[in-house]
Automatic annotation (TrEMBL):
Residues 11-326 form the Adenosine deaminase domain. Its cofactor is Zn(2+). The keyword Metal-binding applies. Signal peptide: none annotated. It catalyses: adenine + H2O + H(+) = hypoxanthine + NH4(+). GO terms for molecular function: adenine deaminase activity; zinc ion binding. It comes from Sphingomonas aracearum. Its EC number is 3.5.4.2. This is Adenine deaminase. GO terms for cellular component: cytosol. InterPro entries: A_deaminase_dom, ADE, Ado/ade_deaminase, Metal_Hydrolase. Substrate binds at residue 278. The active site is at 199 (proton donor). Zn(2+) binds at residues 16, 18, 196, 277.
Length: 326
């Protein structure tokens, strides 16, 4: 088989996916119509044309605007069901998906509505595709510590169906230390911990995610490579990095895919994985990200198999389930 087929057939886990970032323009229009919501675009083409970003914040402004069409449990179900169908076709057999409850509760959509819709789609996908799914509740780091604590409180009735908490949104100016106490409480509640760090933020933010949040996994982590001591520490401790090549290109974390450090990460012994982040906004799902990275950096089948293996090793599946995927 050719490399594209090899990638599509390679069983993979996706560990870095914002479900709101899987909202395709076609579904955005359909939900706007169904809910009688006005969106600032006249056509699907106009939406896609607006997806040109020079930094993280440009993207976030459009991403939060798009999420406004999500109102009912059925909307969240349809959003997630579309993602599971699409990603199953890419050879994803396990997905750990992030959601941003504060984006919705701020608009009067209840935490419970979000959970009901997502969980019904999860149950359907597990039956239909034989995949496994875990949920990661993300706190928006541009909001306050107090608001994060309130969100954790709303999550309490659902904690047996939430695997981890994460930290996303505008990184610069909102270092991990702002959420150290929230993460300590989440840990005490039995949750696993992840955080975006070193996407736009400096290596110091990665240090904070490790030392002050005690994360189990790092989302992005690209800028760790600027600090050789930090890089060696990440390699030595087997920390998983959830790298997102097409996201990095679209948000100008790298200027060209030819400059992407994914192969350097592997050669330095980092447990790097490949993920799609916000596939509807960044131009591809997980197999597209493997293909783009492979083409730009000359990854061979062995590298691609290592990346897929890393995705299971870095997952929150129990050891026996990880072993069954290796
Ligand atoms: C995100 Cl790429 C990225 N970075 C930070 N926060 C996010 N939320 C959704 N996508
Ligand atoms: Zn992300």
């Amino acid at each position: 088989a050719d490399l594209d087929t090899f990638i599509a057939r390679l069983p993979k886990a996706e560990l870095h996916l914002h479900i709101e970032g899987s909202l395709e323009p076609e579904l955005m229009f359909a939900l706007a119509q169904r809910n009688g919501v006005t969106i600032p675009f006249a056509s699907v083409e106009e939406v896609r044309a607006a997806y040109s970003f020079t930094r993280l914040q440009d993207f976030l402004d459009i991403y939060y605007a798009g999420a406004d069409v999500l109102r009912t449990a059925r909307d969240f179900h349809d959003l997630a069901a579309a993602y599971f169908d699409r990603t199953a076709a890419d050879g994803v057999v396990h997905a750990e998906i992030m959601f941003d409850p504060q984006t919705h509760t701020a608009r009067g959509v209840s935490f419970d509505t979000v959970m009901e819709g997502l969980l019904s789609a999860v149950a359907e996908a597990e039956a239909k595709h034989g995949m496994t799914v875990k949920l990661i509740l993300c706190f928006l780091r541009h909001l306050s510590e107090e608001e994060a604590f309130a969100t954790l409180e709303q999550a309490r009735p659902w904690l047996d169906r939430i695997t981890a908490v994460g930290l996303d949104s505008s990184e610069l100016g909102h270092p991990p230390e702002k959420f150290a106490r929230v993460f300590a409480d989440a840990r005490a509640l039995g949750l696993r911990l992840v955080a975006h760090a070193g996407e736009e933020g400096p290596p110091e933010y990665v240090h904070q995610a490790l030392d002050l949040l005690d994360v189990d996994r790092l989302d992005h982590g690209n800028r760790s490579l600027e600090d050789p001591v930090l890089t060696a520490r990440l390699a030595r401790t087997g920390m998983t990095l959830t790298v997102c090549p097409l996201s990095n290109l679209k948000l100008c974390v790298v200027n060209d895919m030819a400059d992407h450090p994914i192969d350097h990460m592997l050669r330095q012994g980092l447990r790097a994985t490949i993920n799609s982040d916000d596939p509807a906004y960044f131009g591809g799902y997980v197999a597209d990200n493997y293909r783009a990275a492979a083409a730009a950096r000359g990854l061979d089948r062995r590298d691609l198999a290592t990346l897929a293996r890393n995705s299971f090793l870095g997952s929150f599946l129990p050891d026996d389930a990880v072993a069954a995927h290796l």
